[in-house]
Amino acid sequence: MKSDKQDTYQDLIQSMPEMAKAVNAFDGDATRKEALRALLGTKLGIEPVTGGGPSGSGTTTTKSKVPTTKKTNKASTRKKKSSKNGPSHATDLDLRTAGIQSLEDFVAEKQPKNQRQKSTVVVYYLQRTMGLSGITVDEVYTAYQAMSWPKPTNFANHLQQVKSAEGWIDTANMADIKVTIPGENFVEYKLPAGSPST
To answer: Domain 78-190 class?
Structure first.
C-alpha cells in the first residue's frame, strides 16, 4: 500500500516537466526561483506569503505548514559550511538579475572607499535593492568577488567589526545579516562621499 508521501512524490515527479517549462519562461534566476517556489507551494500545499521583496515588488515566497528537514534546507547547509571553512562562493546568488540595478552599477553610484563602507553597501544592496533576507557571509563574500575587491582575511570578524565600530549592519545572526537604520542613512545620504546630508 502506497503512503501519502509516495503519492505526492510520484505526482510531483510527473508534474516536473510542465513546471520546468513554466519556470523557464521567466527571465532572471531570482524570478525563476520565486516561480518555482510558488508552483511547488501550490503542488505541495504550502501556503504562499506575499512580500519579502523590495517595497511594492509583490514577490511571493512560500511558508511551509510542515517542518523542513536539514536535507531540504539548502541555505542552512551553505551557512554551516561558511562558518567552519571560511566563506565560499554563493553559486545561487545572481547579482545581474534582469529588472534590478546591478551591483556594479550600484557600487559605481555609491563609491564606497574602504572595506567597512563596501560591506555596508553590499548588505544594503542585497537587502534593499535585491529584496533578499537571510543574507550570509557567503553572499557578501560573493559580492566582493564579483567586484574584484581585496577580501578581509577573516570575513565574519570583519563584518562584526563593521557592526561594533560603525553600527551600519546587524550581525547578531551571521546567517541573517541586515543593514541597520544608521547603515541605510549612511548609504542613502552620505554616499558618495561629499553628498549633502539631510
So the answer is: mainly alpha
Does residue 177 sit in helix, strand or coil? strand
Cα–Cα dist 171/119, whole Å: 12
Per DSSP, what are the bridge partners of residue 48? 62
Residue spans per domain, the chain: 4-63, 78-190
Look-up of cell digits 560603525: 166
Rounded to whole angstroms, the Cα distance separating 90 from 142 reads 6
Looking at the whole model, is its pTM more than 0.85?
Answer: no
Cβ distance 139 to 94 under 8 Å? no
152-194 confidence digits (pLDDT tens): 999 999 999 999 999 999 999 999 999 999 999 999 999 997 7
Q: Which of 102, 122, 124 is nearest to 184 (CA)?
A: 124
Q: Residue 78: what pLDDT? A: 36
Name residue 170's beta-bridge partners.
178
CA angle 87, 33, 120 (to 5 degrees): 40
Cell numbers for 114, please give them: 574602504
Other Cβ atoms less than 10 A from the Cβ of 132: the count is 18
Q: How far apart, in whole angstroms, are the C-alpha atoms of residue 14 and residue 137?
A: 37
| Residue 166 DSSP one-character state | H
Q: What is the mean pLDDT of residues 67-87?
A: 44
Strands (E), the chain: 47-50, 60-63, 169-170, 178-179
